[in-house]
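Request from the bench team (R.T.):
"We need a structural guess for the complex before ordering more S-adenosylmethionine. Sequence and SMILES attached. Just send the tokens back."

Command: build protein-S-adenosylmethionine structure.
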Amino acid sequence: MKIYNILTIFPKMFESALSFGVVSKAADKGILEINPVDIRECAYDRHRSTDDCQYGGGHGLVMKAEPVVESVRAVKANDPSTRVIMLDPRGKTFSQKDAERLLEYESLTFICGRYEGVDERIYDLVVDESISLGDFILTGGELAAITIIDAVARLIPGVLGDENSPVEDSYSTGLLEYPHYTRPAEYEGLSVPEVLTNGHHAEIDRWRREQSLRLTFERRPDLLREAPLNDHDRAFLRKLTLDKIKSRRLYVALLHYPMKDKEKDVVATSITNMDLHDISRSCTTYGVRKYFVVTPLSAQREIAGRVIDHWLEGYGATYNANRKQAFMGTALKESLMEVLEEIERVEGQRPRIVATTARTDRANISYPQLAEATLNQPCLLMFGTGWGFTEDIFRMADNILQPIDGTGEFNHLSVRSAVAIILDRLNRNSGGLL
Ligand SMILES: C[S@@+](CC[C@H](N)C(=O)[O-])C[C@H]1O[C@@H](n2cnc3c(N)ncnc32)[C@H](O)[C@@H]1O
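Reply to R.T.: structure attached below.
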């Protein structure tokens, strides 16, 4: 029999909470025992107080060490191997894996904090681990204890009937569970998916698996990193990812004017052959809709135009078809205004302008935020040359992207490296497995 002790100043809270449903039936069958313990029983002062003001000042009361420690020791006198768990928002966040791990213990003892929390010495003296229910604050640990006991108890063999098998639950498979339907087949104009009504079990299994993968991809892509997946799952997720990336409206511009030089003067920098080639290749690889190379100098545009034409139409086009493909999305522009006009013409709306910089103090958009934004509106990601953008450019940008951090003082990436790294980060933040 599993024993769940709960140390609390409100033992009556447990009388009804755990007296319904399968957990209460399991208690009736003698599979488990729930044992609320009143911490006040071990408060020995005149008022049986379990809390006091905190050292150092500040609002709120703190639960005293003595009544809690003595309560744990009283439980341990009969049940020495019980595992002592503090419910604590600073603890490790509870998950299905923890429920499976805690199932291995014959006895668990939960300490329910109240007020501002408990005297820190309780942790040193009697606590084995701290568990949080999530990133929010409850008024006390009681509801957290009930939740954890419910999640663990339903895994004890014999607690759930076969009709409620926990094997396919969300998280047990590493994925979120597929949608369920019951009678009637049509309700308020909404029908049950046809595949579930045709009795073809292989097709039903396949539909359910794909729904699980789709829901997990959309809502909890973080779970996909550890979920056990087969080749079909991977192919399906790859398709979901590619569809999502195709709907992304991301543009890249490399500006050669107005840029700062070493003396902070405003200059036009030169186009380099490597930036033309490498950024075109990165942008095509990562599904950027267009890569604009911007310079007001006509001689520079003419040289760059010749390079691009060589690969699009000249000898280069037959020599290396891949390079032709890379340059198909590259365009030369005289000014940033021209770039914005072209995007607005194609997309029917002005793009969100996002500038990049190596400086850490001015960023106001993260990679996940930008990845999300590209799904909702066209975004122009601007990269600079020389010694970076002038203040005018930063002022006209809607956002400044979080910089790429190096590992030390030195942080001077080439612009082509920065483009590749940032595009890859945006890709990773699009979810899925790419
Ligand atoms: C009001 S809370 C104290 C919060 C504490 N001052 C803090 O900021 O970390 C009182 C008690 O509720 C319980 N509690 C609150 N939020 C919780 C959570 N997310 N998970 C587990 N227990 C929680 C803990 O036992 C905690 O000691």
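Two things stood out. The mean pLDDT is 94. Residues 87-90, 112-114, 116-118, 132-134, 136-141, 144 surround S-adenosylmethionine (CB under 6 Å).
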